[in-house]
Amino acid sequence: MIDRYSRPEMKQIWSQQNKYQCWLDVELAACRAMNKLGIVSDEDLKVILEKANFDADRVDEIELTTKHDVIAFLTNVAEYVGEPSRWIHYGMTSSDVLDTALALQMKQAAELILQQLKDFTIVLKNKALEHKNLLTIGRSHGIHAEPTSFGLKFALWYDEIQRNIQRLDNAIKHISVGQFSGAVGNYAHISPELEKIACEHLNLTPVNIATQIIQRDRHSEFLAVIAIIGSTLEKIAVEIRHCQRTEVLEMEESFSKGQKGSSAMPHKKNPITSEQISGLARVLRANSMAAMENNALWHERDISHSSVERIILPDSTILLHYMLFKMTALIDNIVVYPEHVKRNLNLTNGLVFSQVLLLKLAENGCSREDSYAIIQRNAMRCWNEKVPFQTLVEQDEEVMKYVSKEDINEVFSYDRYLKNVDYIYNRIGLI
Hints:
Layout: H1 10-13, H2 16-36, H3 42-51, H4 56-66, H5 69-81, H6 94-130, E1 135-140, E2 143-149, H7 151-175, E3 177-178, H8 192-201, E4 205-206, H9 217-244, E5 251-252, H10 272-293, H11 304-332, E6 335-336, H12 338-345, H13 354-363, H14 368-385, H15 389-395, H16 397-400, H17 405-411, H18 421-427
Parallel strand pairs: 3-4
Antiparallel strand pairs: 1-2, 5-6
Helix pairs in contact: 2-3, 2-6, 2-8, 4-5, 6-7, 6-11, 7-9, 9-10, 9-11, 10-11, 13-14
């Protein structure tokens, strides 16, 4: 395994320097394999390993003439190595180098994203535990439904990020493949054993079958997973944007000293990071679609995918890594307003207890249809007249035929809405 592939900085992974270095590592892995198989002598391998190098500017200069990047690269490497360079790229085709090196770059980028995902789960876990017992209103269709735990918001996101980690782990396995199989992938001039040895050196797995390229369903999956992770971040961002609305204000992005929210209105504090995340997630989804378009190529291979990948792979990996960094900081510094949470919980004067009252009436002998009609009638009065729901219920003789005062106290209690939170937390590994 090459130690250099542990955790390079994301900004360096897609640089010309690192790309050419990955190309060179692939070529040297093939030379090592040929030496092990007795094709390249120890003396020639020694010279190759000692002298093999490149100059990115020189490669680009040569490419102006060759109009072929791999040939330009090989020409420059030969200028350093000399006569033994005849073994470099022996029996290989350009895509053996390009696709195997691209796998190295994708793997490097994916491992950085994976680490950022794991860091994000720590922040989400902390917030879930911090707000586990904070009672809040749950919403469906954006409308008040029943009380729940505010911490369950963070717990939900934590659980989804865990699935995204699993998805990315699988995608890393599928992109961590190499090929050394020649012009049409049939090993006419190079052996499968050479491929196995070279891939082992690069810590990659040989593909089962290739044409002239590694098949692009792997890259499609990788970018689809990136888009899915982006959609999770957008889900979180949309909830924060909703909760930061003036009318809700249950939580908001932190606002640093000296920060400005609006060029016109000094009072504004806007959810700018969340809105940024929502927008960037769209780019990830669009790039994922472009990756899927790359899967269908003419006959064994064309190069229509190459120009697309030079954009979407760097952009998507760099973008997601940035989004995760921003979202981790956002959640870590999120401001929660328990007093506003409580205010919103009581906003409907107790209407949130309508279901439990419905169940209690049914339990005590009232038909579901009659129970629903009786409770809805009182609920509409509560809504229109702003009279507490419990007061109306206690004044309704039809209701009180079926329930006692003790039943009413039990119905209008918040205790039930937190009683199974620990069970949920335990099931997803938070406690």
